[in-house]
Amino acid sequence: MADIARERVESWRSRMHAELHQNVVPFWMQHSLDRENGGYFNCLDRDGRRFDTKKHVWLQGRQVWMLSKLCGADPSRADTSRTEISRTEISRADISRADISRTDISRADNSRAGPSRAGPSRAGPSRAGPSRAGPSRADLLDAATLGARFLREHARREDDRVYFSLTRAGAPLALQRKIFAECFYVLAFAEYARASGDDSYRELALSELDAILRWIDDPTPLGRPRLRGQIATSELAVPMILLNLVSEVRGAPGSPTFGDREDYDRIEARCVASIRRHFDRERGLVFETIGADGSRLDSPEGRLINPGHVIECGWFLLDHARRVQDRELTRDALAMIDGALELGWDREHGGILYFLDSEGFSPQQLEWSMKLWWPHCEALVALLMAWRETGEARWFERFETVADWTFEHFPDPEFGEWFGYLDRRGVVSQRFKGGPYKGCFHVPRALFLCERELRAALGLG
Amino acid sequence: MADIARERVESWRSRMHAELHQNVVPFWMQHSLDRENGGYFNCLDRDGRRFDTKKHVWLQGRQVWMLSKLCGADPSRADTSRTEISRTEISRADISRADISRTDISRADNSRAGPSRAGPSRAGPSRAGPSRAGPSRADLLDAATLGARFLREHARREDDRVYFSLTRAGAPLALQRKIFAECFYVLAFAEYARASGDDSYRELALSELDAILRWIDDPTPLGRPRLRGQIATSELAVPMILLNLVSEVRGAPGSPTFGDREDYDRIEARCVASIRRHFDRERGLVFETIGADGSRLDSPEGRLINPGHVIECGWFLLDHARRVQDRELTRDALAMIDGALELGWDREHGGILYFLDSEGFSPQQLEWSMKLWWPHCEALVALLMAWRETGEARWFERFETVADWTFEHFPDPEFGEWFGYLDRRGVVSQRFKGGPYKGCFHVPRALFLCERELRAALGLG
Fold it and tell me: Which pTM value belongs to this model?
């Protein structure tokens, strides 16, 4: 961090800490816990009100993971340099048409649409309520337990498949022909076992991981047989999430569970090789879908670029490369992050575009030009890791560009947490804080990891 | 039409005719026909260039239907009052970021985004090329045959399931756990049998319709067993498409196939009763999903309103009510169309919103605020039918409001056909003319039916 003033770094660290503990985690602790049935309500409107009682297993698992992770954070990290701001320093976010009065829907009064700016203030975090250090470890563990028990009781079938969604009481609602619900079940229990000290959750995580590994090799039991016209493909999401999963199951170097299975190294190496096949080094592009033989596919799926996904993948690889001391992998990961931001950053309106076609055709995804919260979260983490890895000021400067846009557009200073879905111009399109794909995960994970990187840079360990 | 000047009506009739035959049908005749493998390329970029060679069966079937329908149009309808406009009278549509040069993608130059206005001219149609009467009946039948044979050869499995998509050569690519591909197969062959005189296609349509009716009663063979937490629901799309399908299979009153199966009346009555259960008369709202017992569901699915869908359903009902002389059904259909337009019309930016939540929550669909071509197409038809049915000038005036916005925003005067996907402000979001869900169907059907209604109003039969 030679070229970056220490106070700039400290200012961002302090902001990440305050945003996490004052504005984000309290929202979930206050609104999501279902004390009656267990688990979490994850469909929460702007102000925390429930608009659906379904429980989406991806988000139940991710919230268990996040709360458990926060339990494990070193208590000495409690922030002491928090900057305070008054509520009036932050302009109220104007929100979209969806904010019309609930009883006024028949009038379709669209007059309230307008630019959403939470204010460009660098002074400090947006916040939901009175300043405080955030929930205690006991509260976090209690909340994590609420979700872990619910998942344990309701999410997994006898054949190890994990449901996609459940009713409020835990009855199955939907099952996907994919392995991602299973992955977040593993993620949750690996971390919860560490936080709670209850090893039975670790056993559940490991047995489910085994099932996932079997299905990756033979997806037939998932129920989507390959039709005659289909070719075998490789999806970036699979090796990427598996790499992250194995890393999470192992735990940090030095943890008691690290390296206790001989085949972890082999699985990780396989994931890395598979991800690299998606990378076109010459063009700096990572494709979401390629042929199983590594070939490029000239179709909308084959040309699809998801910059946020690539950036997330980039920091998974940086993290892995750091651990296994692979300099060439570090270089590839940096090139992936660089290429995805170069392509995905919207030079006209700012922010990261959701989908692009590598040859410039219109993506088929209707939401291609929207600005979603999670690619921005991933970019914050990736850019700080890239900076720490290289020591080059340009990565920190890029981090600040993305962070400025992110903090100007996503946080909700009035009710806490972040908006998730903005249109291309940065206007809030969906006002809810939690939905089927947004929960207590990307925002707090990014804030948590960004603070970790910034602390390390400051020599705070 | 007492209150509406005859020249206004004639001007719109002439415009619909010219748009259909000069700007829309030629685009598909020029770019979609696959002379090598049969069937149609339906993924076509703005200028007609293919961006994918997949063949989506919904669109193959719809194109066969449309071309066959145009074959059957009375040749005396050839337009004689066509207005001519020079190319320069229409401002070039500015298109979105997706229009960046294909080789320049790595620069992510977004500077070309801007409002898309095809010009507010009422002078005449946008067009793709030199003025002409459009393809001959022989050419249309030849093109319909190309698609019908391809579908007959490749689309249907032995168990009567119909694939969702095929490769260019006809090998199966995807199968949905829904009945809509089957419906468009029936639609195609019912009309193609009439256009070609080949009754074997009518037999195929009828046997597939029988299979659809069986699956509506027992969807088990579709492969999506009901999980314990799910409740039985009724989806508006099912009775709605079935009502249209039976009407199409019967043919127009006086046609040789009309009324040749005794149970048609019974099926239609069941569809109408089912659709009516989705209608909340007091609020004027039609819900996409209700409980199978008719109950309202307090969930995002249960609160979902799709105004374009309701408007389309409205004209299906108007058409049916006209035939069976049911005045009460006419009143309900008018109220549905009225309520959907009242709720769905965007008072700020104009155009019809794609999805809404009846209680004012943010819809979960990321594309909720986009302006899609097809709801506008359906509204043009519905409003003219409502006008003809009631004789009330307010329906014609509403038609003109929607038609003005539609013709200002969707047609592409440079390359023909219409853009399909605009953002809330009316800027083109996706530049392609054909994709997995847009083909040779809604635009030409609406123009064809609008001209039919306008001719009838003018006493041209």
Answer: 0.89
